[in-house]
Amino acid sequence: xxxxLMQPHYLKxxxxxxxxxxxxxxxxxxxxxxxxxxxxxxxxxxSDCNYPGEIVxxxxxxxxxxxxxxxxxxxxxxxxxxxxxxxxxxxxxxxWQHPIDSLPGNFSASLIAxxxxxxxxTISSGAKAVPNVSKSEIDELKAQVKALMDSNAALAAKIAxxxx
Length: 164
Description:
The chain is elongated. By secondary structure, it is of the alpha+beta class. The strands form three sheets. The chain has a four-stranded mixed beta sheet with strand order 7-6-1-8. The chain folds into two domains: 2-92, no CATH class; 132-164. Helices cover 35% and strands 20% of the residues. The protein contains three helices and eight strands. The longest helix is centred in the C-terminal third of the chain and has 29 residues, at 135-163.
């Protein structure tokens, strides 16, 4: 399982450590902590390249002598170099899809389409558009809206008369 890095990566490479030292003021003893840290591998930096102009990484025991061993999963910016790596990378392709960019069309159009589909499902299932509302309540609401529209029209007419 070998991959070529196409972009810079921070990878968990064995024996990449950061050391923190501290001296206790009271006792004068030195405390030391060692942390495993990821290593930056940049294909544009010649000092990082393990082959001419490129970085090839592999899992332990799966590559060649010059390959850099790393722990973890492949990323979309790693080009698989053998069949085993292609199979493993293929299992992660669904995770690599961006949730917005992978939608068909644009985002707002997909939201409208999803809303229209939900409306169609609701109507086709025979569900009431407004649950727990009787016909008399709807008729009363219609009468109130008509009265409101009439009063708005009368107010608009009065305002028009004052302007003239």
